[in-house]
Structures are given as C-alpha cells and as structure tokens.
Specification:
This protein is 34% helix and 25% strand. It has 253 residues and is of the alpha/beta class. It has one domain: 3-Layer(aba) Sandwich (Rossmann fold), CATH 3.40.50. It has a six-stranded mixed beta sheet with strand order 6-7-8-3-9-10, sandwiched between helices. It is globular. The N and C termini lie far apart (50 Å). It has eight helices and ten strands. The site of magnesium ion (MG) has 4 residues, from helix 1.
Length: 253
C-alpha cells in the first residue's frame, strides 16, 4: 500500500497562465522517492514551465504542489530557499555564470550551502567535473566551451551538492549520441548511488528507454499518459504514438 511518504513530489490540479496562454491546465502527477521519472511532450507543451514550478521559480495560479511533504505553492522566498536546497536543477540553456570559470560555477551551489572548507569544495568540484568528463577544463570560461561541454558543466553543477532530487531539463540536447548516452548513464548512476529522485525532461526517446522508471506525456497542459516505458510501443493514445514514432500530423508533405 502506497502512502504520501512514498512520494517526493505531489502535484494536484496545477494551473498556470502565461500571457494569454493557459500553459498548465490541471497537472496531476506524483514522483516517487528514488525514482527516475521522464517527462516527454512536444516543443512548447510546457515541460520547462512545469519543471520551473517544481524548482520554485514559477508560482502556480491554482492547485497544490508538495515537495518532500511541504506545500510550496504559497511559500515566501525564505521558506522556499529551504526547498530549493533539496533540489539540483539543470537549466535547458545551461544558465552558467559567464564571468565565472567552470570550476567556480560548479563550486557556487556548494558555497551557497555555507560550505567553507576549501579542500572539501575542491574535492567535490573535481569529482563532479570528472563525472561529466570535464576533468581538466575547470579553468575555462563557459563561453570558451562547446555547447555540449556547457551542458555537461550544467549537469555537474546540478549534482555537486548531492541534492535529494535532480531536475534535468533536456540533459542530452546538443550532444552527440555517445555523449548523450554517457549523460543518460550518469543520471542513472547518480540515482542508484545516492537514491536521488530524478525528474528528466527530454525529447530524446533513447533517454526514455535508458533512464525512465516511468514516463509521463505532457499535452494540452495535462499529463495525458503515465506509465512504464514498455507501454509506449502498444499505446492506443494516438498523440503519444505519433510523438514516440516521430511522426507529424501532416500526411501530404
Ligand atoms: N516567462 C514566460 N512568459 C510568457 N510565456 C512563457 C514564459 N515561459 C514560457 N512561456 C510559454 O509557455 C509555453 C510552454 O513553454 P515551455 O518552455 O515550457 O515549453 P517546452 O515544453 O519546454 O518546449 P521545448 O521542448 O521547446 O523546450 C510556450 O508557449 C512559451 O512561450
Ligand atoms: Mg523546454
């Protein structure tokens, strides 16, 4: 019998309007502790907006969002900070500080936790850099890295504090297939090593099959499908089927 304690994240009837668009229209979703949940959906369907709600960067218009048992929809900045510390966030665009070296970017969240022991910071930053294959690149500025290297630096920054939950927004976009596979495997390894809960937004079906314990399909502002990746092949949901097979609705192009 499952109970609330089994869920790290609980989303109930979450709504968000941005400009003139109802982006989220009643999201219902639980993320179990320690699972890897992958969210797929078309470009512009609201995946990044949803992830930003989980990270406390957007606040919902309506509905409930619990993170680690705490309702965060009406929290002030100070209380939200405590929740944010439980989360690592890989932004879709990397969002590294351009004026800081890669090394300092990755040390940043560690310092934010109040850690002052430079030897410990050095050890943890070095380990995070090596885990993403960027050992030896710490002295570079983000602008001097390739797109894929910036992405990996973002992953290192998201995981360096060993948060309870990591939110990945498109971790493999812009990477070659071999690097993408390495990042997928890294996400699995981190989750297995630290029992981290992981929420991974992606377009990449290979990521779904490598990483997902469960997969959620976001469409028209709601979770239109939630299940095991093995269910994708035989799904009767035509929109999901088209997405999985990479087929557009246009028949006569
Ligand atoms: N800050 C904002 N202000 C107004 N509209 C926004 C804002 N952020 C996102 N949107 C809109 O919300 C919708 C969903 O955007 P979102 O970035 O979540 O899409 P996505 O599913 O992540 O797409 P992609 O796969 O291309 O990254 C889009 O129409 C976008 O224009
Ligand atoms: Mg996005």
């Amino acid at each position: 019998m499952k109970n609330e304690e089994d869920n790290f994240i609980e989303i109930r009837d979450l709504h968000k309007r941005l400009g003139s668009q109802d982006v989220l229209r009643g999201i219902m979703l639980d993320v179990r502790r320690g699972e890897r949940l992958v969210i797929i959906g078309g470009s512009g369907s609201g995946k990044s907006v949803l992830l930003k709600h989980l990270a406390g960067l957007f606040s919902a218009d309506r509905g409930s969002l619990k993170i680690d048992g705490v309702e965060i929809t009406n929290l002030g900045e100070r209380q939200l900070a405590a929740t944010r510390r439980k989360l690592g966030y890989l932004f879709q665009d990397g969002a590294l500080f351009g004026s800081l070296t890669v090394w300092d970017n990755i040390a940043f969240p560690l310092r934010e936790t109040g850690l002052k022991d430079e030897k410990l910071i050095d050890e943890q930053v070095t380990a995070a850099l090596e885990a993403v294959g960027l050992g030896g690149h710490g002295d570079k500025l983000p602008g001097d890295l390739s797109g894929g290297m910036r992405k990996r630096a973002g992953v290192a920054r998201a995981v360096v504090t060993r948060p309870k939950c990591i939110l990945y927004d498109e971790p493999t976009s812009g990477l070659d297939p071999v690097l993408a596979d390495a990042i997928d495997k890294l996400a699995v390894r981190i989750q297995e090593q630290y029992q981290t809960t992981s929420v991974i937004v992606t377009h990449n079906m290979k990521t779904v099959f490598t990483v997902a314990d469960r997969v959620a399909f976001l469409r028209d502002g709601v979770i239109d499908f939630l299940g095991h990746p093995s269910e994708l092949e035989s799904t009767q949901n035509q929109h999901l089927k088209a997405f999985v097979e990479g087929r557009s609705a246009e028949q006569d192009l």
